[in-house]
Task: inverse folding
């Protein structure tokens, strides 16, 4: 077996290889679109289940809106169309026919041209707000708190599995409110849902912040975001929550009568996370041997592997393994007992290591004779021989320990790589040498941001919500600044 | 409030109005595409959850494949392309640009024409089998048991909410096997999953059968189906499971090495149900007042409505209502306590009747003083005054009773409308007058089927799996026949 590329050697190749090797996803025959394989999809389903639960607990309901958006709706919504909406998949025809010159070929039927082109949704504000127009008359119809799980398409030139693909899966919340204050509370609440999910389930520490003007969503008044640090020191935007003001209500003429009967435009938010989180998960915890999954998102939490030389030994070992399996299941722990006779234990050890299974249990006749089994935890690779009696509780405790350890480890990694710098020269030197995040004073202008980006590739990731007010001067222009922003190279 | 159209007056309008009135779905601004509203989507989520559980219990895993299929893949798969694949949404371009003649308009950028057109998937056999080719080398890689939850698009000329829409949601299972026998077992197993789901959860009796040649899926050797009877006597195909033989393996050149190292084409199945089931659910149980939902799929199983004239009465009633709510929740019953002060009880009664909530509880101070509450079950509209003490158990029992009653009622309805006929004249007369299903002898030819369809609009729904062998003669041609088939008009 060829040795795997390490993170040190080539981080980007390590990532691509690992996503493929662990069975998470692969490229498809369709440019820029991926196939999410069963193991990857099982992790995504766990993410979905947790997020969906939290959305519902915070009062949201799911619904489903059309895949296609008529071109004229994008025109109604100028600002957004100026943004990513132009790089999109355009449906122009609705029929294929057999090629009259070659019966084995199909051609687009020129007679079946659409009167108006349809865009495959890059996001659903347009179609949803044109629908909300019919749902909202009075303050009694508000708030509308809806989420949609869907696929979206943005025509990307350079794609990478999970991180940037032309088609991806996501959820998009779209809410409508009677007041500005209520909409802002909603946008902030959903940012909290995202950051809690990232930290508690993905074990991925995040910085909660606001975007500057140039990174803000085109139709938004304020874009809140969570930013995580990957193992190469780059930032990854893991979720966004937008306060949209009255922009979409105005574009689609959505008004409501307040208690006094006065007509007002509705206030809006939208918020989303996508399969990009899968990439973030991989790049936060995994190592050169394979995936490292936090127990709360691992499709298989424990793999039990029998060690045996004879059918008699297998019988003995299987009995103990099956008993342990059922005890673990009773504790709500997902287990795979792998007694495939075609594979050797060493192969299985490597397989579950690649797949990031949090705990591996090996049961062999020698240990068993002494009432012992072998445990290996994936995060630290620590091996221990423990009593079989009550081992299910040891493992349950390990689930918590591993979850916590992954978070603490990632938090320390991140904190060690965030630093304040006050001069542009120092910033450029350090960024080049050390990577990571920089807290800097910035004059707040797009021009300065563009200059920094052009010269260093770093962008202003966010203005942290917990940033203390602090008088300073912009490290580039020397103009006054009131707080520090986070600068980093990003995915 | 305008009176609703009854089923008797106009079944089709009754259906459309009800789907809209109950908040299940509505037409969108995009031709043929629907918006599934939160209440409708909540029912669909319950269907999904049950089906997904059963798919996993039968060894399947979920995955996700691209939305787009390159045109050449359809060409590889001739038979299928001859079928519905031609009426489809075709993506020809990947960019819009600002119209140089009118800055407020967008036009398709002619420079951004795709080299090869992409088809929005009408079904995923092509993209999935082109992927499986890379996954299958040896018998060890088989079986592959994968399901996908996805949206698909088929360009329909005449659409109806849920029943026939250009975009719809579905699941599609795609499996690969080493032997023909194993693939047939799989196709039949999934038909069982569908029929059990339809009968146990939707309370909708179905006939399990095989399709004749003309109704068979283009790429299939055998199409199994479940057919249900709607209240107007028409048939609705509620799910299909296809034994695909080696057709797709041959089209995409997917072979595996068997234990002896010999290369063989893989055997396949595919199976699916869609949001069409929502239409079937509505048309099986609902009445002129509104939806009637089987408790197992009802998003709200119990609605509790307070009756009060003063704040003091509301306090008293609310206390009892909240206690009952928590007792019901403990029993796993979903409850809505509707104390909205802006609506009168009568309005609420009508609302929950429209929405098909299985049990309504009214709590008022007079009944309460005697330790009583009022229950109304949605299926029979029966009202009863019962003891508050222990009413949660009465309600739990009602959930079972209503679920069973709906099934028995629909079963009787169906059985009363299936009849054997032996002459074409009798068939035509009865079909015209009574509707329903007919068990007839047929000579097995496409020509006879086409004649019947042209003259009566009825089609051969299926050859029931439990059809006993019986010598007879085709009612049209007098040619010999070995068993009876089901003939009916269909959705």
Result:
């Amino acid at each position: 077996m060829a040795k795997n590329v390490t993170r040190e050697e080539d981080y980007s190749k390590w990532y691509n290889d690992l996503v493929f090797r662990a069975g998470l996803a692969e490229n498809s025959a369709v440019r820029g679109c991926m196939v999410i394989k069963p193991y990857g999809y099982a992790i995504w389903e766990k993410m979905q289940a947790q997020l969906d639960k939290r959305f519902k607990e915070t009062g949201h309901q799911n619904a489903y809106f059309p895949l296609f958006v008529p071109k004229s709706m994008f025109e109604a919504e100028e600002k957004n169309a100026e943004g990513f909406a132009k790089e999109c998949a355009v449906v122009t025809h609705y029929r294929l026919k057999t090629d009259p010159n070659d019966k084995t070929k199909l051609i687009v039927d020129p007679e079946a041209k659409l009167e108006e082109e349809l865009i495959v949704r890059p996001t659903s504000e347009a179609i949803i707000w044109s629908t909300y127009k019919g749902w909202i008359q009075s303050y009694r119809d508000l708030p509308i708190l809806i989420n949609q799980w869907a696929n979206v398409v943005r025509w990307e030139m350079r794609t990478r599995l999970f991180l940037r693909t032309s088609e991806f899966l996501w959820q998009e919340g779209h809410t409508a409110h009677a007041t500005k204050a209520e909409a802002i509370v909603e946008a902030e609440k959903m940012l909290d849902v995202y950051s809690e999910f990232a930290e508690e389930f993905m074990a991925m520490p995040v910085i909660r912040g606001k975007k500057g003007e140039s990174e803000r969503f085109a139709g938004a008044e304020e874009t809140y975001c969570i930013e995580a640090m990957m193992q190469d020191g780059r930032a990854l935007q893991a979720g966004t929550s937008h306060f949209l003001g009255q922009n979409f209500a105005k574009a689609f003429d959505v008004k409501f009568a307040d208690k006094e009967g006065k007509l007002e435009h509705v206030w809006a938010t939208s918020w989303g996370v996508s399969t990009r989180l899968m990439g973030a998960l991989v790049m936060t915890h995994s190592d050169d041997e394979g995936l490292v999954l936090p127990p709360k998102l691992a499709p298989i939490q424990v793999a039990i592997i029998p060690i045996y030389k004879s059918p008699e030994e297998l019988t003995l070992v299987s009995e103990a393994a099956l008993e342990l399996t059922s005890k673990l299941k009773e504790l709500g722990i997902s287990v795979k007992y792998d007694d495939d006779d075609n594979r050797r234990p060493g192969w299985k050890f490597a397989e579950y290591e690649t797949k990031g299974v949090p705990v591996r249990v090996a049961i062999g006749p020698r240990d068993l004779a002494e009432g012992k089994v072998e445990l290996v935890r994936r995060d630290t690779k620590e091996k221990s021989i423990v009593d079989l009696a009550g081992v299910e509780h040891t493992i349950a405790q390990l689930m918590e320990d591993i979850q916590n350890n992954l978070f603490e480890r990632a938090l320390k990694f991140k904190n060690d790589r965030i630093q304040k710098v006050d001069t542009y020269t120092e910033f450029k030197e350090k960024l080049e040498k050390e990577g990571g995040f920089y807290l800097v004073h910035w004059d707040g202008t797009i021009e300065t941001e563009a200059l920094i980006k052009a010269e260093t590739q770093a962008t202003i990731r966010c203005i942290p919500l917990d940033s203390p007010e602090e008088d300073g001067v912009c490290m580039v222009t020397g103009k006054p600044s009131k707080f520090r922003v986070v600068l980093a190279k990003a995915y």
Observations:
- Chain A has a mean pLDDT of 95.
